[in-house]
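Let us walk through a complete example step by step. Step one is to write down the protein sequence. Step two is to encode the small molecule, NDP, as a SMILES string so that its atoms and bonds are unambiguous. Step three, shown after the inputs, is the structure prediction itself.
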Amino acid sequence: MTVSVFIDGAEGTTGLEIRERLAGRGDIALIQLDDARRKDLDARRQALNDADFVILCLPDDAAREAVALIDNDRTRVIDASTAHRTGDGWTYGFAELEPGQAAAIAEARRVSNPGCYPTGFLALVRPLVRAGLVPVDWPLTVNAVSGYSGGGKSMIAEFEHAAAPPAARPYALGLAHKHVAEMQKHARIEHPPLFAPSVANTYRGMIVEVPLPLHAFSRRPGLHVCEAVLGEAYRDCALITLADGDAKTVAIEDDAGSDRLTIRVCGNPDTGQARLIATLDNLGKGAAGAAVQNLNIMAGFDPVAGLTV
Ligand SMILES: NC(=O)C1=CN([C@@H]2O[C@H](COP(=O)(O)OP(=O)(O)OC[C@H]3O[C@@H](n4cnc5c(N)ncnc54)[C@H](OP(=O)(O)O)[C@@H]3O)[C@@H](O)[C@H]2O)C=CC1
Ligand SMILES: CC(=O)N[C@@H](CCC(=O)OP(=O)(O)O)C(=O)O
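Step three: the predicted structure of the complex.
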């Protein structure tokens, strides 16, 4: 079976990565617009309605516009932007997050790809909340470092053309980052997490960390209990690995250039203080890899076709 796919925003950072992953696949026929027509409304409308699957790699407003241009019941959409991640009528495109989520994605007409930071945060936290180990009313904190490609073409240009780019730059200091609502909703927790991201002077890759005072929780779970719950949650997942919590170092490069997500439960068993740490590529499992995984699931292909495990 061959399906037709149109990537709206195919010349952007995420769009190009998706095209790379789909290139050469015999089960996918790409609908492409040349440079002169890629932002032309009529050309986009035509391509959006001709395709079996559309992957939106656009700024939020353009993504909303693209969805509105689809006037048939057949075209199925995967949106990589933030526009629909907390909205009604959209299936959250994180296949491993909940039991039954992959099956819901397989049936969905509108799938919202998770944000890169929420992918790391939710993978670490959601199984522990679901198991009742992390209380739903606990005020969680998320520390994270991303490569600068996370900010798309404009941030890439900023870092690559600056005379002296910063080695690392904390941002979202007003604690109102666009990912906070998405993290809260899909972790199913009562308070917005305190999200402290930084961007580093490296192209791709990210570290997402959640510090947890396990000793303060009513059930006082040990590190090994958290590890067992996470190991069970992702037991059959090709893209998610529970790695050794005794690692001496973790690096932003660990999963860069792949579609993997690696999680670890580090910390001090004597004090009951934990550091849950996820590494992934913002452009891999954090964006393009997840979009291709969702496309595979929706089209009934091998879920990891075209992906680097
Ligand atoms: N970069 C990342 O790590 C991640 C990005 N995302 C999300 O994916 C989406 C794309 O991000 P990213 O690839 O980084 O962004 P880029 O800025 O690199 O690419 C966006 C692309 O969209 C094009 N575009 C803008 N407006 C329109 C329009 N009206 N019609 C057609 N094309 C348009 C741009 O054109 P032009 O080339 O002319 O500027 C550009 O090619 C965003 O919503 C982002 O939030 C999600 C997860 C991770
Ligand atoms: C370094 C950097 O700027 N990162 C982006 C997030 C990129 C991303 O994955 O978020 P979306 O999927 O929601 O676009 C930011 O913080 O806005």
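Step four is interpretation. Residues 82, 115-116, 146, 150-151, 155, 178-179, 197, 199, 282, 286-287 surround N-acetyl-L-glutamyl 5-phosphate (ligand 2) (CB under 6 Å).
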